[in-house]
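User: Structure tokens for this complex, please. No commentary.
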Amino acid sequence: MDDAGQTFTHRQVPAKTLHPPTTVSPQLRRSISNLAAAPRLAMDGMPQTADAWRAFVATADAQALALAPILASQFPHTVNKTTIAGVTAREITPGTLDPAKAGRLLINLHGGGYVLNGGEASTGEAILGAHYSGMKVIAVDYRMAPDHPFPAAVDDAVAVWRAVIAEYEPASVGVFGTSAGGGLTLALVLKLKELGLPLPGALAPSTPWTDLTGASDSYAVNAEVDGIFSSFDTIGRAMAAVYAGEAGVSHPLVSPIFGDFSGFPPTILTTGTRDILLSDTVRAYRAMRAAGVEARLEVHEAMSHAEYIYAFDSPESAVAFSDIAAFFDRHLVG
Amino acid sequence: MDDAGQTFTHRQVPAKTLHPPTTVSPQLRRSISNLAAAPRLAMDGMPQTADAWRAFVATADAQALALAPILASQFPHTVNKTTIAGVTAREITPGTLDPAKAGRLLINLHGGGYVLNGGEASTGEAILGAHYSGMKVIAVDYRMAPDHPFPAAVDDAVAVWRAVIAEYEPASVGVFGTSAGGGLTLALVLKLKELGLPLPGALAPSTPWTDLTGASDSYAVNAEVDGIFSSFDTIGRAMAAVYAGEAGVSHPLVSPIFGDFSGFPPTILTTGTRDILLSDTVRAYRAMRAAGVEARLEVHEAMSHAEYIYAFDSPESAVAFSDIAAFFDRHLVG
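Assistant:
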């Protein structure tokens, strides 16, 4: 029975065993198998205090950093750590810069549920984006929970945006990000509309975290199916609460699915069939289309949340980033 | 261990209860609840003989026909039963024909796993397609298994195509279909390429059945999640076998995912996040993109296989058919 007194029937889905499918590349199949072999987060093991969060973050970020040397060897680049409008950032220059795009810039907002992947761990997706686009990428090391809950991340993104558009034509700048970084990409543009500031030329929120209330259908359908973000009810809900703080998870700058997408720039959204944020992505895509935004949806077979970043040796990862780069090529001006 | 001697780890997904989500319209939520309340097909109840198939088909088609009066009252139209090149067909004329599109035509290939929805049950999707496009639709009542296995359906589609292009500019004709009808849409165009015949101007295969071998990841992930096509291992595999016959399920005109999509016309593909053919749809989309085809992917929150046809009173159904109609508007000539 719901609020309106209607009775609904629930669906019982039996336990199942999922095999790494033969319908993907050998590299992605190996990644899917490795994820299945990785230890799970315990239901009752989520951090309860700021110190416990910091310990959790340190462990997770160390894993992300361990991948960095492999990533660097396959995708040569230079990193220049800097401060933009008081916000720490890293300027990523790919091994091969496309001179035809010298007047353009990409801004990356990293993922990690607004708690993970800060500092040196913030550049993974930015490095891949720089490689596939041949463009310089500013990886924003925005402030995060538990020390800096909402709206610190949005404020930092806006501050960097103001500084960037003092130097670049706004329509020549693209913004991209995964998961929380995808949600923050959308929240940034909602905030820019509110402030009456110019908008970016194009957006690429990938598997964006758009609904921190947990209502999306795929939180249930893909629970424990997704090998990376396996359960909203453990890690997801805890991150949402510690990030949202007093604003609450329904605030449109926390959960951009509740925002108004009218007037948004052209947007490409990427997800996978095993992604726990499949619905967060699909719902944002549909809301954008309903608002008249030029939007494209890209879905990859058997991919879990953000797996295109971690399975960076797979052809599927190359397709995902190449599609995003081609979309920026088409829509950024200058 | 697979053929190459590699060891893969499988993922164990616990049993779960899926609630009709609040993230869809009230009409779609009601449809999802009704599907959950419907009786399931028994694992061991699949037809084993031609007579058993015919009894199964009669029961299923009676259910489809029971919806016809409601559909007719909401989407006024006329039906003219006819024969085209020896193939039974029904010409559907919507209540409001768009005079600007008088030189254009749509061909619909109905769904039903190559066994169901023949005869008077073959017009449901065609009526909705005619309504939302304002165009005349030829609903092809192609021959089906068990009496007429592959290649009868493909042969009938080709015969109708030859007759249609004697009267219409091929680039002014669009072909659409759901499930087996979506697979048959793709198989028709593969066959037309083989025959060196002109191709349609645009295609709309929705939740197309492209892999009858059962390899797609969503056959496992969305088993018993999908409220309409709940299990490949019961009904799906049985229909695949009785349709494919001696050609086998890997034949590219039976499972078009194994075909070559290069040179295909612009194509829009539609699916849902609970769809057991989510992967069949996504894989076809990716293969088309890889072949350089102009393709678009549309995914709907919490929708099961082909639910846009049955939940025809939902705004989501209107969006799905309107997207297809707009795609035909953009890509058909004349």
